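Our consortium's second objective concerns turning raw sequence data into structural hypotheses that experimental partners can test. To show how far this objective has progressed, the report includes one record in full. It was chosen at random from the queue rather than selected for favorable results. The single chain below, 386 residues long, was entered without modification.
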Amino acid sequence: MASTLISMRTVGAGLVVVLAVASFSFGQQQGQPPAGQVRMAEQQFKNIQALKGFPANQVVQTMHVIESSLGVNCEYCHIQQDRSKDDLEPKKTARRMITMVLDINKNTFEGKQVVTCYTCHRGSPQPVNSIVLPIPNAMIEHPEPPAPNLPSADQILSKYVQALGGEQALRKVTSRVITATRDIPTGPGGENPTPAQIEIDQKAPNLVVTTSRADKITLAEGFDGTTAWTQNMAGVVAALPEPDQGRARKAADLYEPLNLKNEYARMEVRSIEKVNGRDAYVVVGYPQDDVPERLFFDTQTGLLLARKTAIPTLLGDNPVEVYYSDYRNTGGGVKIPFMTYMIPGSPRSEMWTNSTMRIQKVQDNVPVDSAKLAKPQSKPQPAPGQ
């Protein structure tokens, strides 16, 4: 069953992290930081001003939030050949706006992220600064519909486990191999969807490796019981940043559907909403050390239809949504979704991207070599200039 949750959280979470960062930083980076050390933005990139003193691994994701908030692309502020240059006026304006947003939140909202770029821009480079007519008549009273009688979170989770086949069937699965197709996000910001063949190898309790093979590209990611890692097409292995690291740790649990409640400090059933035309209970989970997640369970079947979360950045949250459909029996009495749709294409891709994974074959309880599930070593890289 873990493959279901893996596709929720981590399939593709790392596939573009190294590629996207490397592409964004080309011509800017001052060199790679020592293993296990996070550099500040000004140590990793050239000509950092407004984001000086912030972690370098948050810069690219923050740029994605700015782009989506204004409805623009990188070249709106940056010269493509050298993004450290200050030739474009919007880049100078952006620095002032970044400083303004950070100062407002620090001095007015006690450091809480209340104001973001999207607060004013709403997808346009020019924020609206005048009233738009007609104004809704606030004096007209609209009676609220009666609140639905919602089940408890425990009841919803119990029905979910039963819909997947029940606890006994889930625990009988100790390993799983999945083959699938997917358009993986590659290139800067994951903007280039590349058709790939996917293999997911998993073994209880929490070992998993996902390998993606496309024309002249092989990428991998996994969790070895301790660390979530990714390997780019050059063979360089790196640990995933937070919050991806913590999410991958949870998703690697082969029995996560049974342990879902333990992932949150508390859960509350919020409402009923439509997901792809179906009524779904909205359950909000509050992790101990992460942003809240919203889970959408079909009111009739009990199956999970969607999962929505976000990656926090310096200037606003980067939303991440995953949708599940085409649940089928794997052959041992356990159901998983054979289609997963992700927007953006991976958690750290540009927000307008998307990706679909279609499962072709599932094999439960087949031998999986533990050595295959170990974190690999980086391949030797050519010396600079060679």
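The partners drew two points from this record. Residues 89-108 form the longest helix (20 residues). Residues 297 and 304 are 4 Å apart (CA to CA). Both points have been shared with the crystallography group to help prioritize constructs.
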